[in-house]
Design goal:
Strand order of the largest sheet: 1-4
Number of helices: 11
CATH architecture of the largest domain: Alpha-Beta Complex
Order of helices and strands: HHHHHEEHHHHEEHH
Largest sheet: 2 strands, parallel
Number of strands: 4
Radius of gyration: 18 Å
Number of domains: 2
Distance between the termini: 22 Å
CATH superfamily of the largest domain: Nitrile hydratase alpha /Thiocyanate hydrolase gamma
Length: 190
């Protein structure tokens, strides 16, 4: 795959379609400045700072902005998973996704089967992702739009009391922030 990417980049550069410096800038942005590590940091802060969690759930756009992560012109809403409520995000019309805090969307998020099945039978979709919830846990599906994006704050795993934000952030996955996964348990393989 890397050889294909390099070959494509070389051809596009030789033909003048791509500026290598611009491409390097974009790649660096997605590797270091944009991505699920930002969302993981936000979730870990919410797990350790009750005041921040309250602000995040009340106005995620402002709370995320207070950490220095400026978003585009979209409104971000944080929804919190609890033992009685599990939140899941989908964009039924296209693939609206909070890329500023989660990076590029996974291929499955943009697929028509995920987009339709997540609304029709979310419990089955979660099972496809390996998530089985108690029968009495309500599942709420949030539909992203061009103006409004969602960030799921997964439940903090048991056995993480006293952990630093940095260590906790390592347990937060992109899928857990979309609601198709859970945060990793301590000691679970990444």
């Amino acid at each position: 795959m890397q050889l294909r990417v390099r070959a494509l980049e070389t051809i596009l550069t030789e033909k003048g379609y791509v500026d290598p410096k611009a491409l390097d800038f974009i790649i660096d942005a997605y590797e270091t400045k944009i991505g699920p590590h930002i969302g993981a940091h936000i979730v870990a802060k919410a797990w350790t700072d009750p005041d921040f969690k309250h602000r995040l759930v009340a106005d995620a756009t402002a709370a995320v902005g207070s950490l220095g992560f400026a978003g585009r012109a979209t409104h971000l809403i944080a929804v919190e998973n609890t033992p009685r409520l599990h939140n899941m995000v989908v964009c039924t019309l296209c693939s609206c996704y909070p890329w500023e805090v989660l990076g590029l969307p996974p291929v499955w998020y943009k697929s028509a089967p995920y987009r339709s099945r997540a609304v029709i039978d979310p419990r089955c979709v979660l099972a496809d992702f390996g998530v089985t919830l108690p029968a009495d846990t309500e599942i709420r599906v949030w539909d992203s739009t061009a103006e409004t994006r969602y960030l799921v704050v997964p439940m903090r795993p048991a056995g993480t009391e006293g952990w630093s934000e940095e260590k906790l952030a390592g347990l937060v996955t992109r899928d857990s922030m979309v609601g198709t996964g859970l945060a990793r348990a301590p000691g679970a393989a990444p």
